[in-house]
Amino acid sequence: MNVPYLYSYRNLWARKLTTLLTAGGMALVVFVFSAVLMLDAGLQKTLVDTGSWDNAVVTRRGAESEVQSIVDRPQASTIESQPEVALGPGGVAMLSKESVVLISLNKRGTGQPANVIIRGTGPTGLALRPQLHIVQGRMFRPGSNEIITGRSVAERFAGAGLGESLRFGGREWVVVGVFDAGKSGFDSEVWGDVEQLMQTFRRSVFSSVIFKLKDSNGFDAFAERIRSDPRLTVEAKRETRYYADQSEKLSAFISYLGLVLSAIFSIGAMIGAMITMYAAVANRTAEIGALRALGFQRSAILLTFLAESLLLSLVGGLVGLVLASFMQFFSISTINMQSFAELAFGFTLNPGIVVRSLLFALFMGLVGGFLPALRAAGMNIVDSLRAA
Amino acid sequence: MFYLGLILRNALRHKLRSLLTLLGLVVAILAFGLISTVVGAWYANSEAASNARLVTRNAISLAFSMPISYKQKIRAVEGVKDVSYANWFGGVYKDPKNFFPQFAIDPESYLRIYRDYLLPEDDLRNFIRDRKGCIVGRRLAQAYGFKVGDTLLLKGGIFPGDWEFVIRGIYDGRESKTDTSQMFFHWDLLNETMKKVSPRRANYVGVYVVEIGNPEDAAPVSEAIDKLFKNSSWETLTETEQAFQLGFVSMIEAIVAAIRLMSYVVIVIILAVMANTMAMTARERLSEYATLKALGFGPRYVAALIFGESLTLAAIGAVIGIALTFPAARGFSALTGTLFPTMQVADATVWRQVASAAIVGVLAAALPAWRAARVKIVDGLRSIG
Questions:
Q1: What average pLDDT does the segment A154-179 reach?
Q2: Chain A residue closest in CA terms to B250
Q3: What is the DSSP letter of A93?
Q4: Could you give phi then psi for residue A286, rounded to 5 degrees?
Q5: Which residues in chain A touch residue B24, judged by CB atoms under 8 angstroms apart?
Q6: How many Cα atoms are found within 13 Å in the side-chain-facing hemisphere of B35?
Q7: pLDDT at A338 over 80
Q8: How far is C-alpha A143 from the chain's CA centre?
Q9: Record: contact B17-A32, CB cut-off 8 A
Q10: Given an 8 Å threshold on Cβ–Cβ distance, is A201 in contact with B21?
Q11: Does the beta-carbon distance from A18 to B276 stay under 8 Å?
Q12: What is the pLDDT of residue A260?
């Protein structure tokens, strides 16, 4: 027979300050743990949402990102003539030859410079990304010095808002529109006319070719043909895959760093739980003796104290999660090691993170409470009754 | 003396509890020190930067280069003492994980300006003479076991192809914070190869390093250089080396700030643990404190007993934690290889560790001490803990 759970619950309630401090320590650890997972999830979501499963990205073989890639005009034309390229209204290929370079812009307020991706594209470029909508102003006119900026670029960089202008490459560029790309990576980009930008940056080659697949299943055949064509030095990836790869390094960095920190911090919280539980056992020696004398088994005593510790950690875990969920209102911007450009992304909470955070909290409670519970269970009835 | 003895006896009464609290303190102080050291390592390059050096880059961004012909023009600007140039190579050694900076440089002028890289006379001569030669820093050499005479193979990223170099020397840093995790080779080799494979990209330089005679001239000289190339096809941006290096740190500022915040979170966590220990201790001894009061000791005396115990624990934890920070930083440095240029425990870090331990010690004792000082003798004697 087990000791009623109410007993464990009441005991926590009886020493409010101790419960508060111990659970508070755990809450902070869980906060760190879940905030890191949320940040990683936010990064993945941002970059995965950037790509579309039906689009293919063609870059130079071995290039880590579009920024490092070059695709010359003959190769781009070869790709354009492939049968897998979807045709849009009027028989125009749904394909965009793009030029992607980094420019250094100054942040609003601090004036700190940061690298921003500027993408030279055309009207098809917009059609290929249905998640992208112009929310202020209008699209740039082809062949002009007009540009449009992503929402987070417009907010964070000086001169990037609607009606303002940026100077780079010896020319003034007027921002005629601001677009929202549904929190995807495009929100951290600036878009302009591809030919104008290539001229400005004195480039004769494109960075990448993006197109919509006529039939989504045709991708593998296309990728294989491209790979085996001796005239081509390029490789193709599905757009989703391309952007997932883009998040690899930063994601590994964030999760590695965060998990190491959580692991170290959890030692502190587990020690806290252990101290509390040892004290709880010591203070209740006579009670334990009485419970045993009433006929409760050693295993029941063990479970009781474990339950108390687990309950304590569960409270800590829940508080930590609630705190962490407020992080969803924030977003951070940092350099993506792969493209070397600034990327803004937020914290995303999902059910998987909730479960993992609570399990992590319970794990801390289990480790912290196990030895004290063992001591309680090992007590001798007569000695413990005498202790009071 | 009696007083100290009482504090010590009290601390040792619950040996297990004190030991656990100490262990927690040590972990927290150690973690705090390590995190601060890692954050400091990010700033190491900008701290080592001289303010008598300027860096000129293409105004569009670092991804763009400038013609080699700018060298003579910059050299002619008043206040400029010396000019050198470098290209970021960005090659991969065996696996993309093995990251270390590689630069194509003009050996003579570059090493003339960067006097902090110490190279034996013979090795320097061999390096300058051998166009396929390269030099590597001491930390880099240790991380990958490079020796003089070894062949170093890099896979080009920005400059495609397989590149083979012969290590002609291993340089040391003049100071402990000098970055010795980089590899340098001949700009001429890079340029000759580019002339052959992609002539459009030949004769371009990534950054110019400009040494000026007087650090106070940094602003006017920078302006003069940028004015020289204004409205040309390659506009420039010149800033002090320190500002240039800080620009890199600012790119990951959000992450650095988050990590710094974490170092304070661990202190708060341990504060909660320590405060709990002191609260439990004081609660259990409430009747003793009442007894002391009944004997005529004042509330201050009782409070001081609790503060003394808390600070004693904090002090022991701090000493062990700080002592462990140094070997831990060395271990971490060996583990991460050349990811960070240097990994030095700064004096300021140690002081901050001491300060956090003191704050934890005081705050943890505050509430219990206040309670114990105010408890009425009758209530205290009645209390059963």
A1: 92
A2: A112
A3: B
A4: -65, -40
A5: 267-268, 271-272
A6: 28
A7: no
A8: 37
A9: no
A10: no
A11: yes
A12: 87
- pLDDT score for A349: 93
Residue in the structure block whose two tokens are 């910059």: B74
> Can you say how many angstroms the Cα of residue A225 is from the centroid of all Cα atoms in its chain?
34
Minimum distance, in Å, between the CA of residue A275 and any CA atom of chain B: 6
Give the three-state DSSP class for A174: strand
Mean pLDDT for B192-199 is: 89
Q: Is residue A97 within 8 Å of residue A76, measured between CB atoms?
A: yes
Per-residue pLDDT tens over the stretch B68-127 = 999 999 999 988 999 999 999 988 898 877 889 999 999 999 999 998 899 999 999 999
Give B211's pLDDT tier (boundaries 50, 70, 90). very high
Structure-token pair, residue B279? 């609260």
> Model confidence over A125-147: pLDDT tens digits?
989 998 899 999 999 999 999 99
Amino acid at A361: A
Average pLDDT over residues A182-188: 88
How far apart CA A335 and CA A67 sit, in angstroms, is 14
Would you state the torsion angle of the CA atoms of residues A77, A80, A83, A88, taken in this order, to the nearest 10 degrees? Answer: -150
Q: Do the chains contact at A101 and B35, CB–CB below 8 Å?
A: no
Please state, as a whole number, how many other Cβ atoms lie within 10 Å of the Cβ of residue A386. Answer: 11
Cβ neighbours around B195 below 10 Å, total: 12
Cβ <8 Å between A21 and B272: yes
- Say if residues B91 and B137 touch (Cβ distance below 8 Å): no
Does residue B1 surpass a pLDDT of 60? no
B385 pLDDT above the threshold of 70: no
Cβ contact A149:A192 at 8 Å? no
Report the alpha-carbon distance of residue B288 to residue B235 in Å, rounded. 79
For the stretch A286-300, pLDDT in tens is: 889 998 999 899 999
Find chain B residues with C-beta within 8 A of A272's C-beta: 24, 269, 272-273, 276
Over 90: is that where the pLDDT of A309 sits? yes
Q: Which pLDDT does position A388 carry in this prediction?
A: 56
Angle A333-A237-B90 (CA atoms, 0-180°, nearest 5)?
Answer: 55
Q: Which of A234, A271, A274, A277 to mutate to test the interface with B (most CBs of B within 10 A)?
A: A271
Residues facing residue A346 across a β-bridge = A331
Phi, psi of B339, deg, nearest 5: -65, -40
Question: What tokens were used for B113?
Answer: 């300006």
Compute CA B144 distance to the chain's CA centroid, rounded to the nearest angstrom: 21
Residue of B262, B358, B347 whose CA lies nearest to B318: B358
Q: Return d(Cα A5, Cα B375) in angstroms, integer.
A: 34
In which band, very low, low, confident or very high, does the pLDDT at B60 lie, cut at 50, 70 and 90? confident
Going by the DSSP 8-state scheme, the letter that residue A4 receives in this structure is P
Residues A125 and A98: beta-carbon distance below 8 Å: yes
**Interface ipTM:** 0.81
Asked if residue A362 lies in contact with residue A306, where contact means CB atoms within 8 angstroms, the answer is: no
Q: How far apart are CA B144 and CA B338, in angstroms?
A: 9
A72 contact residues in B (CB cutoff 8 A): none
| Cα(A376)–Cα(B242) distance, integer angstroms | 61
Does residue B341 register a pLDDT over 80?
no
Question: Per this entry, what is the length of chain B?
Answer: 385
Contact A120, A100 (CB under 8 A): yes
Which residues of chain B make contact with A24, given a CB cutoff of 8 A?
272
